[in-house]
Each structure stands twice: as structure tokens, then as C-alpha cells.
Amino acid sequence: MSELSEEVQPKFLVDGMLGSLARKLRILGFDTLYDPKSEDDALRSSARTDRRILLTGDFELYKSAKRSYIDTILIDSSSERDRLFEVLQKLGTTKIRTDQMVSRCSQCNGVLYDTGKIGRHGSVFSCRTCGKSYWKGSHWDKLNALFSDVNLMLLQEHEKRIRKLKHESSESF
After folding, report:
1. 123 is a domain residue
2. Which residues constitute the domain of residue 157?
3. What's the pLDDT at 121?
4. Is residue 55 included in any domain, yes or no?
5. Is the pLDDT of residue 8 over 90?
6. CA distance 9 to 3
7. What is the CATH classification number for the domain harbouring 150?
8. Domain count of the chain?
9. Are 32 and 124 in contact (CB under 8 A)?
10. What percent of the chain has pLDDT over 70?
């Protein structure tokens, strides 16, 4: 899997320790559920029922979800950049598609639509679920820098895997 298309994008369920990661995944267009008050049993049940990948920083929850055959990613990193890289790298992603960065509400996960209005910073989008409005304001530069950093890390990891594969194949002859 290199660039994730909308048809094959995974759906996530994020535990209470990773709220900022949930918001970033939503901004990138990923269907991401997040409830900071959910208990472990509810998270496992919801992940199984909705066929979502559970993202957690809790090793015990990770182990119990794995024992229950739930797709789970243990997040070990502490920085936003490294957490986002960790998720995407474990999915085999080589590039973030920034053209979908306004497709989900960062607050409620609802789908955004273009209102047709033009504000000071360009197009205005609104959430179909909660009605919150979005536009590319000053925070957008920080998000672009974050996503560019993660894209660079993904590219470097991909190139490292290719070099390793080439090396292994040359050794087999």
C-alpha cells in the first residue's frame, strides 16, 4: 500500500490517551472515532463490531485486543509527528495524501462539505454532523509542516526497505 485512496482507507478507533492523534487523522480524511471516556471493554467491542483498527498507548489494552484478534496498533511514540508516522508506517503508507485534509471534522468525525462561501483564507467548509465551520487559517502552516515532516519520514523508511530488499536479493545469487 503506498498512497491510501479513499476506498481502502482504514477506519480507526483511538483510545483516550491519543486525542490529538485522532484529530490529525480526521484532518487527513481518516474515519476516526474517539471517546476519551471509553473503557477498555467498550473499545474492544466497538473495534470488533465496527471493524476498526484500535490505536492505543496502553500495553495491556493492546495485548488483550490482540488476544481477541482485533487489529490493533500500539503507539510507543510521544511526539505528534512520531505518532502519526508510526501509524502510517505500520499501515505501509509511503505518502500522506494532503488533498483530502479537509474531509472530516476534527471535533466529531463528521464529513465536511464545501459551503460555496469564500472567506478571508479561501473556501469555507462545514461539518454535516455538528455544523462547525473550517477554513485554512494560520494553523494550516503548522499542519502542512507536520505533514511534510511525516511524509519525509515515510519516504526515508520506504527507501530503507527498498535498499534492504535489493541487498537481500543480491545475496541470494
Report:
1. no
2. 7-101+138-171
3. 81
4. yes
5. no
6. 10
7. 3.40.50
8. 1
9. no
10. 92
Which cell goes with 145?
509542516
Q: Taken in order 111, 116, 117, 118, is the CA torsion positive or negative?
A: positive
User: β-strand 133-134 against 122-127: which pairing, if any?
Assistant: antiparallel
In angstroms, rounded to a whole number, what is the distance separating the alpha carbons of residues 66 and 136? 39
Q: For residue 51, is it within any domain?
A: yes
Q: Which residues pair with 92 in a beta bridge?
A: none
Cβ–Cβ < 8 Å for 150, 137: no
Where residue 79 falls (left for φ over 0; alpha for ψ -120 to 50; beta otherwise) is: beta
Q: In angstroms, what is the C-alpha Rg of the chain?
A: 18
- Pair 85, 153: CB distance under 8 Å: yes
- Report yes or no on 118 lying in a domain: no
pLDDT digits (tens, 9 = 90+) for 80-132: 999 999 999 999 999 987 765 668 999 999 999 999 999 888 889 999 999 99
What spatial distance separates the first Cα and last Cα of the chain, rounded to whole Å?
28
Regarding pTM above 0.70, the answer is yes
| Residues composing the chain | 173
